[in-house]
């Protein structure tokens, strides 16, 4: 079960039966908790504030982990569905990460993907940021390029997907076209332009998507990067060049406290893939060279030990926590249902932040209820009757929840139990 979620993960939240209660009572509780500080909160460490490395301040240590909605317009412009989805999940968490936003048209990975690559997308991004800020959370956008994890029917002019080398992701996938040196350098510039767009839109930070088998991971992995030039002989060169470019744009254009994060897949399960030691070493290099605020670990269970190296019993997040500077926050995600799960994600690993995804999809008021000591009121199942009240786009249900996580999301009226899971994208 766990290995099937190594590359893509997701999370839950909400319920029709408690919606009216949420509106009437929980909003008042939230205001007292976050704004006045006069409500006696549950004594969890993850509800304590956190000051990030370069001045960003989070009201607590919970993060709405990046999720893919497939609800944007054909040109990557944010839709009202996008805006309202995030608005209704920003009222309690300290940080919201808007998921997988493509930095280039050839970097699209799926239909309905949010874009951060063109001027006409800026107004919609500003609406998204405003909705998140209305709830009191910080807003970070994830910068994404799919690389070979795409297909020609989705890309402009029916072009083939691009990658470091002409190696398909699976035997059934399209064979990608290997990028030229000039194209690689152009993509690096695209990440920089997307960062400037995020700053102009009012985001509080950006997260570089270096996980889930997308382009940056494709360059880092020995299984997908067989190049003989400098982009292949040093497989860290491309992700590091992207990170440096993004950091330079932040330095030159953003206000102090602008957040920089990086998402990483700790290990690969294929025989010729990389291992946990490789990514810990890369993370050390990354944090030494780039002013990173946090590292987001893509994993199905927050306190799990490595998949591929069972002899290592230490939790993955702790391996990174022990290896990185103390002021670089580690974000652990996956299999968090109750407050005690979130607390254990931090105490078992030494992580600084805990991510929620499925939890907030089916229970948008997860943080507020846990903080108020009302965990018994948490919704634990998703029903088709809830979609409207949850502001859950039908496209998200059809493209993500049902086909990819039908056995993970606890559906009302079904026999499936809460399973091991993590975050998607």
Q: Describe it for me?
A:
It is a single chain. The chain is α/β, with parallel strands linked by helices and 425 residues long. 33% of the residues lie in helices and 12% in strands. Helix 8 (276-289) links the parallel strand 9 and strand 10 (294-297).
SSE layout:
Blueprint: H1 19-36, E1 50-51, E2 57-58, E3 62-64, H2 80-87, E4 95-102, H3 122-134, E5 138-144, E6 162-163, E7 177-178, H4 181-201, E8 205-210, H5 215-220, H6 230-233, H7 237-253, E9 259-264, H8 276-289, E10 294-297, H9 316-323, E11 329-333, H10 339-347, E12 353-356, H11 358-362, H12 366-371, H13 394-405
Parallel strand pairs: 3-4, 3-12, 4-5, 5-8, 6-7, 8-9, 9-10, 10-11, 11-12
Antiparallel strand pairs: 1-2
Helix pairs in contact: 2-3, 3-4, 4-7, 8-9
| Tally of DSSP β-strands | 12
What is the helix tally? 13
Overall geometry comes to globular
State the end-to-end distance: 18 Å
Mean pLDDT: 87
Order of helices and strands: HEEEHEHEEEHEHHHEHEHEHEHHH
* Biggest β-sheet strands, sense, barrel: 8 strands, parallel, barrel
Sum up the structure in keywords:
425 residues; 33% helix; 8-stranded parallel beta barrel; 12 strands; single chain
Short description:
The protein is 33% helix and 12% strand. With 425 residues, the chain is of the alpha/beta class. A hairpin with a 5-residue loop joins strand 1 and strand 2.
């Amino acid at each position: 079960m766990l290995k099937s979620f190594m590359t893509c993960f997701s999370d839950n939240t909400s319920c029709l039966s408690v919606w009216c209660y949420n509106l009437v009572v929980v909003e008042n509780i939230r205001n007292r908790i976050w704004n006045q500080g006069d409500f006696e909160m549950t004594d969890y460490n993850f509800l304590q504030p956190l000051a990030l490395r370069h001045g960003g301040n989070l009201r607590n240590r919970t993060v709405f982990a990046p999720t893919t909605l497939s609800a944007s317009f054909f040109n990557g412009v944010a839709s009202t569905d996008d805006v309202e989805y995030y608005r209704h999940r920003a009222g309690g968490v300290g940080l919201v990460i808007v998921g997988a936003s493509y930095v280039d048209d050839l970097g699209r990975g799926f239909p309905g993907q949010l874009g951060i690559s063109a001027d006409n997308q800026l107004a919609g991004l500003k609406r998204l940021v405003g909705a998140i800020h209305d709830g009191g959370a910080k807003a970070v956008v994830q910068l994404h390029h799919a690389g070979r994890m795409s297909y020609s029917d989705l890309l402009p002019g029916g072009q083939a997907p691009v990658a470091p080398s002409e190696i398909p992701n699976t035997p059934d996938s399209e064979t990608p076209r290997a990028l030229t040196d000039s194209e690689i350098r152009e993509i690096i510039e695209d990440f920089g332009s997307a960062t400037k767009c995020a700053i102009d839109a009012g985001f509080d930070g950006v997260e570089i998507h270096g996980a889930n088998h997308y382009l940056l991971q494709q360059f880092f992995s020995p299984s997908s990067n067989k190049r003989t030039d400098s982009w292949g002989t040093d497989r860290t060169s491309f992700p590091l060049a992207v990170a440096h470019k993004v950091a330079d744009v932040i330095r030159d254009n953003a206000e102090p406290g602008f957040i920089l994060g990086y998402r990483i897949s700790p290990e690969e399960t294929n025989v010729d893939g990389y291992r946990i030691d490789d990514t810990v070493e890369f993370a050390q290099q990354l944090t030494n060279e780039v002013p990173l605020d946090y590292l987001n670990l893509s994993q199905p269970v927050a306190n799990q030990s490595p998949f591929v190296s069972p002899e290592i019993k230490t939790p993955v997040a702790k391996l990174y926590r022990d290896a990185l500077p103390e002021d670089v926050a580690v974000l652990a995600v996956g299999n968090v249902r109750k407050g005690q799960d979130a607390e254990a994600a931090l105490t078992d690993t030494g992580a600084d932040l805990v991510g929620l995804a499925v939890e907030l999809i089916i229970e948008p008021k997860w943080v507020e209820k846990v903080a108020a000591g009302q965990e018994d009121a948490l919704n634990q199942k998703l029903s088709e009757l809830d979609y409207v009240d949850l502001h859950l786009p039908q496209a998200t249900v059809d493209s993500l929840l049902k086909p990819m996580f039908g056995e993970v999301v606890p559906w009302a009226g079904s026999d499936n139990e809460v399973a091991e899971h993590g975050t998607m994208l």
